[in-house]
Give the backbone structure.
Amino acid sequence: MSKDYFITTAIDYPNGLPHIGHAYEKILADVIARYRRLNGQRVYFLTGVDQHGQKMQQTAEAEGVNVATLAKRNTKKFLSLWDTLGVHYDGWAETTADDHKHCVQAILRDLHDKGQLYKKTTTLSYSVRQEQYLTDKDRTSEGNFGPEWGEVVKLEEENWWFKLSEHAAWLKGAVESDTFKILPAFRKSEVTNAIERAADTDLCISRPKARLHWGIEIPFDTDFVTYVWFDALINYISFAGYRKAGGSTLPDFDQLWPADAHVIGKDILVPAHSIYWPCMLHAMGFADDQMPTLLVHGWWNSKSQSGEEEKMSKSLGNVVDPAELAQKFGVDALRYYLVRDITTGKDSAFDLSRLIMLFNTELANDLGNLLNRSLTLTKRGALRVTDYDDGQTQALRESLAESVAAYQTAMEHDEVSVALGAINSHVVHCNGFLERNKPWNLAKDESQADRLAAALYHICESCTHLAILLGPVLPTAAEKILAQLRFTPESPVLLADLQWGLLQDGHETGKPKPVFPRIEIPQD
Ligand code: MSP
């Protein structure tokens, strides 16, 4: 039996509320997963939270709560948001789960036995005033530590290291030959450049418990826990059933691996996902054809007062709250906007006026009106299949076929915005068709009965196809549309079933009810 389409996302740090970037990534993955199902594939979608690490420990300390309590409390907020936003996953990864811990420790033991791990002492910079260790990221552009850190002293620390450098030459070949695939292709050069640097550096994979207690213990040296990335990256295989314990309810690993898409943001491509992760897999003994594919998306940024694009951050206070947006404007508007107004792989600036505009134009006006008119015009009687055909009906069928083809090509390349553009182009064609044929006038003329029947059939049939195509992005709205069309087949219609003639002769459609009520902007 062929393997499932296995899609995963980055697992989010639940050290605060989920923000728009988290929501975008999960919705993007959900849309792709739903599309693959529509395409007839069996799909397994895994997502979750990355509960360990320094950030969580620090947030808990700052809030004066137990770190496990913080992780549980915040994880609930992520779970509840995914439920609200219709993000339907098959597997949920929490890195504090016993199954995961068991797998991470088994891998650590294996790598240790294979001589891939060693202990070494290094010198670290420590800020006495801020009571924290500093990294090169904390240095100024001149290479110094700024005055905010106060006195910076050197401290020695012993840790466990992974022989990353031993895998650099293999990785270079794997990236160049696309054995280890990075999508979109323009991201590949960032990785190739970074591999040069990895060639002479190993990866520190532990922290002494004295400094970080919130992590998975190194099984052969219990004064240490694993470094957060080592623990987090393993979620992609641990929750897919790799080295699962007897009696575990986790999936069958061979049915899922390798992942067809690890959906991640551009910030965690280098070094974590493109250097550490493939080298870890290679060291564990994964063969070249067992490497996952990365799908790297861009960032939703914020627009500053002066219209400049800037990064969203807690400190700038410009973080957009997806739960609030869904509550105010509806889940459909948010899901649609987040995949419509960004090119997969590129950045975009979050703009509320565009969210409202895109919903009102493409959904409320274009699709909403088309559906409303189709159903209102048809409710006078059953649909009739006739021999009537003219240039316009033919052109409409061609427009639909072109849209379906463009949609499919785009979705095969995860270009959701392009796919939605293809749907809209047929919606616009149908509205033009109605304007040109004016079925409301044809209805007054007996001699035009066949032309009227053909026109109504063509637009209702189009609406049925359009709703099915829209399903991956707006599952609830698509269901509502199909229910109003009274097209409710027993088994789901797949992309391959989208042949002309889904609606039978004599089909009766239902009553129109607005699926996309316009968003009214309060005037103040
Ligand atoms: N916990 C790590 C990932 C471990 S994966 C084995 C992490 N967590 S995160 O919460 O900081 O980010 C989770 C995901 O959200 C990442 O893929 C990141 O790129 C994405 N986003 C965070 N902010 C974003 C935007 N503003 N826009 C789009 N996505 C962004 O990194």
Q: What stands out?
A: The radius of gyration is 27 Å.
